Amino acid sequence: MTENAGESQIDNPRFENVSGDFTYEAVAPRIEINWDPRTDSGTVCFWVELEEYHNGVYTGQRRPHKHWAMRPLVVPLEDLAKVRSYTVLAPDGQGGFIEIAVAPGLMGLLVKTAFNDVYGERAAQLPAINNELPQAPVIVYPEPPAPIEDDPLFQEPPAE
User: Fold this and answer.
1) What whole-number distance in Å separates Cα of residue 56 and Cα of residue 144?
2) What is the pLDDT of residue 89?
């Protein structure tokens, strides 16, 4: 199997050998960060799927993970911050990888900085917004129906 970003499948719980030539790797193609900046708390939701490899070659197929098929793997931000640093593998520019220790707070700063930059770029492209409050809609009701006692269908027939 080819290495994924410098990782080997040996002793890695994300790799699962199902049968002979097929191997599955757990990946999180969708990650949601639910962060409350006022309290610096929240959760990270990892939507887990399995990528299929046949004889070490990615087949392009994904399937739901047996444990997290209908719900994400949810981790409180506090639990992620307990780790003093994460070791990540980064390309070294020469076809290999180097290990870099990253403090957990840097991940949040990276996401916040990326949001600020992207928001600033996109907001500059938006048309000007009229900050006046919109007028309340005028609702026109139909004339109320005539009272029943005025309706000829509901009047008593004349006495004979």
Assistant:
1) 76
2) 86
Residue 114 CB-density burial (10 A; 0-12 exposed, 13-18 middle, 19+ buried) = exposed
Which residues touch 52 (CB under 8 Å, ≥6 apart)? Answer: 22, 23, 24, 58, 59, 61, 62, 63
Q: How far apart are CA 104 and CA 84, in angstroms?
A: 7
Q: Which two tokens stand for residue 93?
A: 């520019």
Residue 16 neighbours by CB under 8 Å, 6+ apart: 23, 24, 25, 26, 50
How would you label 60-96 residue by residue, b for 16+ Cβ within 10 Å and e otherwise?
A: eeeeebeebeeebeeeebeeeeeeeeeeeeeeeeeee
**What are residue 101's phi and psi, to 5 degrees?**
-85, 130
Quick check: 58 pLDDT over 50?
yes
3-state secondary structure of 100: strand
Which one has a higher pLDDT value, 93 or 150?
Answer: 93
